[in-house]
């Protein structure tokens, strides 16, 4: 009857560049997203920037109020690397940045909310981009130094760490398509490889230097669509769907959970352009203490051949995903509503990665166009999605430990700027106060949390008496 464990994490997520603003406040250094949005030829929707955004750098107490109002047990936030280390290195620490995150973390703990902290959510210090960024083999060690700095500064209060958010999106959109910062093309595999090495270094640093004293867990947030064959009877489409999963989820999950190397199908298709792990120290295999999944949508997949032309990821993949016309769209062309795919992906993760503990670190639904405060569709989406998670736990036996909605607030949605609203709270970006107002979907999520928490409490009392 839809029973969640009593210690289940009910959360919401945000990311520094998307909510903080204060892009050059109090000694913060420039990040690649600052630079990308400030370009004269910026490709971001209506040339929006994260310069002010929700102004959480100054209005963080408002965020805490929103978190309390929802009744969240957990809150996932990210740290801005260039706010803490303006030139990306530990040579100079910005103490005002440290103070900012101390206030936020202490405020969460004072309210009984457990923080989950992401070290890197797309916002590399521009100073490191100038030295090659994720294309450079020196960046993993610089990330590791940053990570150790954060474990030291904040680790006494943080038990759940995410090193990197969605290396797939950073590699594919930032280093293949050029749609995200830093706007590079043709370097996705190289960038992805260095992100995996960065993650592994940081995990080993935590393991060797901090785990014993701090007792936390470290993972990397991996995003993937669910993929199913377009024609259920076609062996070719089935193989294409398997490739689709291998090139998204598998790209980062295989090295961490399965073999210390990329999936075989990737190796076979990409060949020499896919970097090798041989001789890489420390090992990448085994460097995730739980599975962190960002899930948004699903695709029907068919096999396609791309003839001639330059090498590309599309050509390597040899498959194409389309949206089932039965799945409603929500304003963003890539985001078809497909809650069933989350349960399928959770089952796949249990079977493929040896039954890991799973946190769903992001999941959500956007609105575009005129603001709809009574967003009944999104309320229904959350109800249905949580139902799918319940089935995954109860009927499929997946070890799901938590669910984080994306996002706490409407915020800067990368190339879509403020044109796409993912918040449980509406933010009025035309108002200096950046007033936060709960959507109907926020009330729905709050009700879901309160119902399940009292149900599992009652269940425990019943079974322990
Ligand atoms: C995730 N796509 O990114 C990010 O982790 C969040 O920062 C973001 O706001 C959220 O999903 C909603 O988009 C994605 O184009 C960005 O397929 C782009 C895509 C997918 C995920």
Automatic annotation (TrEMBL):
Q: Give the matching InterPro entries.
A: GH, GH_1_N_CS, Glyco_hydro_1, Glyco_hydro_1_AS
Sections of the chain in a coiled coil? none
Gene Ontology BP, a term: carbohydrate metabolic process
**One CC-aspect GO term:** cytosol
Spell out the Gene3D superfamilies in the cross-references: Glycosidases
Which residues carry out catalysis?
362
| Gene Ontology molecular function, alphabetical | beta-galactosidase activity; glycosylceramidase activity
Under Pfam families, the record lists: Glyco_hydro_1
From which domain of life does this come? Eukaryota
- Give the record's keywords alphabetically: Glycosidase, Hydrolase
**So what family is this one in?**
Belongs to the glycosyl hydrolase 1 family.
What name has this protein been given in UniProt? Glucosidase, beta, acid 3 (gene/pseudogene)
- Originating organism: Gadus morhua
